[in-house]
Design goal:
Strand content: 15-25%
Number of strands: 6
Number of helices: 7
Largest sheet: 6 strands, mixed
Distance between the termini: 33 Å
Helix content: 25-40%
Order of helices and strands: HEEHHEHHEEHHE
Oligomer: single chain
Length: 196
Amino acid sequence: MKNNIDEIPSGGIGIKIIGKIADELNYTPTSDSRNCLLIVKYYQPSQPSRQAGYFKRASDFFNSFYWLQKQRTPQSKPSFNQPLHKISLKLNSDIKGVSQVLGWFESCFLEYLPIPEAVLQQFKLAAVEGFTNAVRHAHKNLPPETPIELEITVFSSRLELKIWDWGKPFDLTAKLKEELPETSLFSRNELGFMLD
């Protein structure tokens, strides 16, 4: 991996990759003067693997201590909009943080949830590309201590990745039209995601 941010090739590849992965994509300023990139990926839950079975048994064991509480307040199956799992990470604006983003994915037990492996790998790539774009573009002229925050929320049939930066806001739709001509390897017509 190149350690100097100026040596990393540009040309809109990151946004093109994110656009290919995302089912929904949104970039909006927030009330606290930050910007939030939202990447949504839908999936069909996969059958749990044998490893997931071990994790589930351990989880069931620890959850059994809450048996009485569950008996008092019966809970229904999680709804479409009820988060199953949420994790977050805060990093400085340093391209070397990509290894921390990858380590974060490995340490958060997402592989034990019923998410297809291909979806997890695509989502990991979107996180790396989103973080890299925040470092390279949004924080280009900001001090390296400027934080970038990432958050993954797992729902029953979708993943959401939010990446907050402190850069100058921009129009994502206009940028995509500029970077993605009507006919190319990554054309807007082929991406298939929805822009909010």
